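Entry 14. Two folds queued back to back today. First construct below, sequence then structure tokens.
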Amino acid sequence: TLTLQPGCLVKFYPGRGLYFGYYGEATLIAEGTSSNPITFTSHATTPAPGDWEGIVFFNSTDDASTVMKYCTVEYGGYTSYDSNINCNQASPTIQHCIIRNSDGHGIYTTGSGALPLISCSTITNNVNGVYATSNSNPTLTDCRITGNTTYGVYNNSSAVTLDAENNWWGNTDGPGGVASGSGDAVSNYVDYTP
């Protein structure tokens, strides 16, 4: 178990990342506060998207205990994990977080065991805000999903419909893509109403 205290600043060198549950059960408890958040970021003097790998949760992550609250995760997306947070058959709880400036996805989920709850968070300035594959099924609620250049939420699995209700998409007319609004785009198999 890795427990980070409010106010922690964790910086990563190029090509480095933080893995949980790859070799055995592991837990991340990263609970900041609104006035004293925890930050995961690049070590570069001038940070840029893709500076580091991001945080990767594998299938031996202790889903019941792993939580990120009031955290900022930024400038990840280096190499194959291509995201700030990668949930590979894992289901962490992500609340009141800022997920931004990834070289690829803000949050990437894959596999039917990936059912993370993402709530009350800001997911912005990534290529894709949330990208779900291989029957993963994240739940997004009360989030601000804006400024992502390709999709706000993308689901490539027709077997599941993602619950992405009650989010702000950057415009009062709702999301774009398969929807008729002008906010961040959503793909098929995403329930964005209301």
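Second construct, same run, same settings:
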Amino acid sequence: LAHTWAPKGFDLKVQAPGQAKRRALLGVRDAADGELVVEVAKTKRSTDFIRLLERLDWIYGPKASTVPVVLVLDNGPIHKSKATTKALEERSSWLTPFWLPAYAPELNDIERDWRTLKRLHIANRVLRSEAELEAAVHNAIHAINQARGVHVVELPMAA
């Protein structure tokens, strides 16, 4: 559900073609400059989170920066799996996970970014294909980063 306008006493109905398509957004926000780095996936699995970690390798890894990085994680299942634990351990020389308490989304700053993305950029639009949905998400992330004055680095997309 999203906030929208409709005549008083009437339910707003938006025609949506076909089945509703969903995408999982996995992302991080750089605390220094506010840049969002987002991975869009059809699923929300450990392999998708590891793909996000690989992007972070390129941006913040030991070859890119000498500053240690702290990654704030909630206790979602994809953050606790064996594959993810191994991937985090492989990056322990430059990446330190900081675990939020369970069931505390109000402590996770990126939740506000997801709310902004949904309410201001994606809501009240009919997107006719999965490709259109993904393009809208990428355009919204780009707009959010630009509004924050972040210099956006385009990374090659995974196939």
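Quick look at the second one. The radius of gyration is 17 Å. The chain has a mean pLDDT of 85.
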